[in-house]
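C-alpha cells incoming
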C-alpha cells in the first residue's frame, strides 16, 4: 500500500484499491462463482441498481423505432429473462396482434429454464419463444433475427471479433446488433483486480468491444453511455461477490467495502451510490 497521505477522495480510492491488490499479491486466483450463485447474486445486484430500468427504457425505444411489422429478437446471455420479458411484453402490447419471435441463449440451464418460464408466463399467443442452453459460440441457432443483443454477456465470450462476426451473420439485412457492456470504471476496477481469469482470457469491457468492432471493420452506428448508480452500501456478501465476479475471502470484504465507500457519490436520496455506467454499441447488418 502507498505510504503517501491521500489528498482527495480519488486519491483515497486509489490507495484503497492498492490495498485490495496488496492483499492479493502473490496469492492464488480467487474462486469464481458457480452458476447458481452467479444468477442469485446477479438478481439481487440488479435490485440495488437503476441500471436495468435505464437499459430497458433505452432498448424499448430502439425496438419501437423498428416499425410495426413482425419482429424477431435473439438475446445472447439472456439470464433469467427478466429484462427480455419486459422488452417482449412491450413489443406484444405496443402493436396488438404483431408476431413476435424472441429467442434466448445462455450456457447455464437454470437461467435458460427461467427465461423460458418467464416468457411463457407472459401468456401472449403472438409471442413465440425458444431457449438454447449453450455458450454463444457453441449454440446451434440457425434462424436470422431483426435484433441480436448481448446485454452484459460480452464479458465472457472467448473471442470478441469472432463473436461480433457470428452475431452479425445471424441478422437479416438491415437488422441491428446491440451490445450493452460496462466500461472499466470504479466498480469494474475491482473485477480487474479480483476476478479469476476465464478460459484463456480476462473479462472484456467496453474499450475491448469498441476495439473489436474497429478491428473487425464493423461500422458502429451509435455508442450510448447510460449513467446508472448502485447502492452497494447495503449489499449482502453474495451481491458483493457478484459485483467483483469472484468469491471474496473474509480478509478482502473490509478493504473492498472501504473502496466502494470511497468511490461512492450521493444518490438523489443522499445515500451513497457507486457509479454504475453501461455503454450500448449499435451496428447494422448492411
Ligand atoms: C450478467 S448476466 C446478464 C443476463 C441478462 N442479459 C440481463 O441483462 O439480465 C450474464 C449472462 O451471460 C451468460 N453467459 C456467460 N457466458 C456466456 C457465453 N459464452 N455465451 C452466452 N452467454 C453467456 C451468463 O450465464 C449470464 O446469464
Amino acid at each position: 500500500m502507498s505510504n503517501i497521505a491521500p489528498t482527495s477522495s480519488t486519491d483515497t480510492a486509489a490507495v484503497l484499491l492498492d490495498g485490495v491488490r496488496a492483499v492479493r499479491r502473490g496469492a492464488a486466483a480467487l474462486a469464481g462463482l458457480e452458476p447458481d450463485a452467479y444468477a442469485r447474486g446477479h438478481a439481487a445486484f440488479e435490485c440495488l441498481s437503476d441500471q436495468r430500468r435505464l437499459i430497458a427504457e433505452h432498448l424499448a425505444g430502439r425496438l419501437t423505432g423498428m416499425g410495426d411489422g413482425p419482429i424477431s429478437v435473439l438475446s445472447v446471455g439472456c439470464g433469467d429473462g427478466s429484462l427480455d420479458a419486459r422488452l417482449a411484453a412491450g413489443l406484444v402490447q405496443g402493436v396488438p396482434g404483431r408476431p413476435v419471435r424472441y429467442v434466448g441463449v445462455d450456457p447455464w440451464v437454470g437461467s435458460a429454464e427461467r427465461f423460458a418460464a418467464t416468457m411463457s408466463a407472459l401468456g401472449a399467443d403472438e409471442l413465440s419463444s425458444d431457449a438454447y442452453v449453450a455458450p454463444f459460440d457453441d449454440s446451434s441457432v440457425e434462424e436470422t433475427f431483426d435484433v441480436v443483443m448481448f446485454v452484459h454477456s460480452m464479458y465472457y465470450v472467448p473471442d470478441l471479433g469472432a463473436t461480433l462476426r457470428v452475431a452479425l451473420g445471424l441478422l437479416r439485412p438491415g437488422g441491428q446488433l446491440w451490445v450493452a457492456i460496462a466500461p472499466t470504471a470504479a466498480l469494474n476496477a475491482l473485477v480487474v483486480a479480483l476476478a479469476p481469469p476465464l478460459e484463456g482470457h480476462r473479462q472484456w469491457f467496453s474499450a475491448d468491444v469498441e476495439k473489436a468492432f474497429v478491428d473487425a471493420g464493423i461500422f458502429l452506428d451509435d455508442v450510448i453511455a447510460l449513467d446508472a448508480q448502485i447502492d452497494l452500501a447495503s449489499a449482502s456478501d453474495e451481491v458483493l461477490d457478484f459485483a467483483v465476479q469472484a468469491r471474496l475471502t473474509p480478509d478482502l470484504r473490509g478493504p473492498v467495502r472501504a473502496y466502494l465507500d470511497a468511490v461512492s457519490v450521493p444518490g438523489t436520496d443522499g445515500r451513497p451510490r457507486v457509479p454504475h455506467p453501461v455503454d450500448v454499441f449499435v451496428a447494422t447488418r448492411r
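note: The longest strand covers residues 171-181.
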